[in-house]
Write a structure and sequence with these properties.
By secondary structure, this protein is of the alpha/beta class. It is 57% helix and 17% strand. The chain folds into two domains: 6-79, no CATH class; 93-218, Nucleotidyltransferase, domain 5. Strand 2 (105-114) and strand 3 form a beta hairpin.
């Protein structure tokens, strides 16, 4: 019987063949290498073990190539996603926040719009009465209206209201009830600006807009 390195046999063996080899070891008191050699020799049949090992190596290499290709594809998608979330240095950026005291109650809205050439627009004002979702929507609307007035392009907007961010991104078909008019106005403004990115951020990363909304209530 031909002699082959144990690592070569172990690499070539399928899971079921390795299980069968371990059973042989227990039943016939063979070494693991001897048992694996018997199992693979039986699997090779008339073609011979050398041929089986060569075919298995080719199969392993194809599987590895596919694995690396999937890995590269996933890394590329992740890089694109990260890039899409990071506004370019030449883009406009905005943050918004709305609050109602109590809820529902007096609405205060805050927003900050920053441009690539040092432009800075701060919004802080009262906006009537309503609930917190209406407050967030009014803050976002005010920000987008300011962006339209400034001729902003490539605008990336952040807010800490998952309700509003998800509602706008999901659209009218799956959006929340009771805020249809607010959503329609936001969508209209985003269409005028073209290519607006709207994403959620945690409250601690929305500090300026939160400060401006609270200032509107307390000022």
């Amino acid at each position: 019987m031909e002699q082959f390195e144990f690592d070569t046999l172990a690499t070539a063996a399928f899971k079921g063949e390795r299980v069968a080899a371990r059973r042989l070891v227990a039943r016939m008191q063979l070494s693991e290498a001897q048992a694996l050699l018997q199992v693979l020799t039986l699997a090779a049949g008339a073609a011979g073990l050398a041929q089986l090992l060569a075919e298995r190596e080719q199969l392993r290499m194809r599987d590895e190539e596919r694995r690396l290709a999937r890995q590269a594809h996933a890394a590329h998608k992740l890089a694109l996603r990260k890039a899409s979330l990071q506004p370019s240095a030449a883009a406009w950026r905005g943050w918004f926040d709305g609050s109602a005291h109590p809820n529902p109650g007096q609405i205060g809205i805050g927003a900050l719009l920053c441009g690539p050439d040092g432009q800075r627009v701060e919004i802080s004002r009262r906006a009537g009465h309503g609930n917190s979702s209406e407050a967030e929507y009014l803050a976002l609307t005010a920000l987008l209206e300011a962006a339209v007035e400034m001729g902003a392009t490539g605008l990336a907007v952040c807010g800490d209201s998952q309700v509003v961010v998800n509602d706008v991104n999901l659209g009218a078909v799956r959006g929340a009830k009771g805020v249809e008019e607010h959503r329609a106005r936001v969508v209209e403004l985003m269409a005028k600006l073209g290519g607006v990115q709207l994403r959620w951020v945690p409250r601690h990363r929305n500090g300026d807009a939160d400060r401006l909304s609270q200032q509107a209530i307390n000022g």
